[in-house]
């Protein structure tokens, strides 16, 4: 883990020097290691990044174990992770009514202040009714619960109406697997809704909705791609030994 971040910061430092030059530079193993040694990253900061990832992604057992081993305190109550994951799992399994109840138990304001999220949960309920062949119940639910949300003349409500029309159109096809909106019945639709709920709960807890670690790794990939164009530098060619080898000239 630490090597990854040392590489990231070293690459960023090197880019600052190399990007000004026009010719490709050869960086020796000694130069590279000196750059790495010059980078100072506190262990506490690394631990916070790990904890942030575990909390945001919902790995409550791992977060609790890491807290005990590292002494790193999470910025939210770990008990809330279990509740949040229960909501997410309910949506992923198609139990949307149960998920809505769990969200309201956590914080009723989440759905009260987020009409788009509430609509998407109701839309998912409609999708599940259609998936289970409950046509009459689906039509009644769409008319009574979802249609009124698309009647007001503004951009958000119009968006609701368009999404409702797409969802209801599933009922017009005998073979829904080959219809133009078949993706609504795919598991990815459940995952999309579950992710939206998860993000809303995190936001309500004053926590970032996305973990910081993946963003840093994306930055690393970008930095390495830039560095490849400007320099030849030591690489680890054998993962089993993790030994840096001088670049070929």
From TrEMBL:
<protein>
    <submittedName>
        <fullName>Protein GID8 homolog isoform X1</fullName>
    </submittedName>
</protein>
<dbReference type="InterPro" id="IPR013144">
    <property type="entry name" value="CRA_dom"/>
</dbReference>
<dbReference type="Pfam" id="PF10607">
    <property type="entry name" value="CTLH"/>
</dbReference>
<dbReference type="InterPro" id="IPR006595">
    <property type="entry name" value="CTLH_C"/>
</dbReference>
<dbReference type="Pfam" id="PF08513">
    <property type="entry name" value="LisH"/>
</dbReference>
<feature type="domain" description="CTLH">
    <location>
        <begin position="80"/>
        <end position="137"/>
    </location>
</feature>
<feature type="signal peptide">
    <location>
        <begin position="1"/>
        <end position="23"/>
    </location>
</feature>
<dbReference type="InterPro" id="IPR050618">
    <property type="entry name" value="Ubq-SigPath_Reg"/>
</dbReference>
<dbReference type="InterPro" id="IPR006594">
    <property type="entry name" value="LisH"/>
</dbReference>
<keyword id="KW-0732">Signal</keyword>
<dbReference type="InterPro" id="IPR024964">
    <property type="entry name" value="CTLH/CRA"/>
</dbReference>
């Amino acid at each position: 883990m630490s090597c990854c971040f040392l590489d990231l910061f070293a690459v960023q430092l090197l880019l600052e020097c190399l990007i000004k030059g026009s010719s490709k530079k050869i960086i020796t193993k000694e130069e590279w290691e000196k750059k790495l040694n010059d980078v100072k990253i506190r262990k506490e900061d690394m631990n916070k990044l790990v904890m942030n990832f575990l909390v945001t992604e919902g790995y409550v057992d791992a977060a609790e174990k890491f807290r005990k081993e590292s002494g790193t305190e999470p910025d939210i109550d770990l008990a809330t992770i279990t509740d949040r994951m229960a909501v997410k799992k309910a949506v992923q399994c198609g139990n949307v009514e149960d998920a809505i109840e769990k969200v309201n138990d956590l914080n009723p304001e989440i759905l009260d202040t987020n009409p788009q999220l509430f609509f998407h949960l109701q839309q998912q309920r409609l999708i599940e009714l259609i998936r289970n062949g409950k046509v009459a119940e689906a039509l009644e639910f769409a008319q009574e619960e979802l249609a009124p949300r698309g009647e007001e003349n503004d951009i958000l409500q119009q968006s609701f109406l368009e999404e409702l029309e797409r969802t209801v159109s599933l009922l017009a096809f005998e073979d829904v697997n080959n219809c133009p909106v078949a993706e609504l019945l795919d598991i990815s639709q459940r995952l999309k809704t579950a992710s939206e709920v998860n993000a809303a709960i995190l936001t309500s807890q004053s926590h970032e909705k996305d973990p910081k670690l993946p963003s840093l790794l994306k930055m690393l990939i970008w930095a390495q791609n830039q560095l490849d164009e400007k320099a030849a530098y030591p690489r680890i060619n054998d993962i089993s030994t993790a030994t840096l080898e001088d670049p070929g000239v």
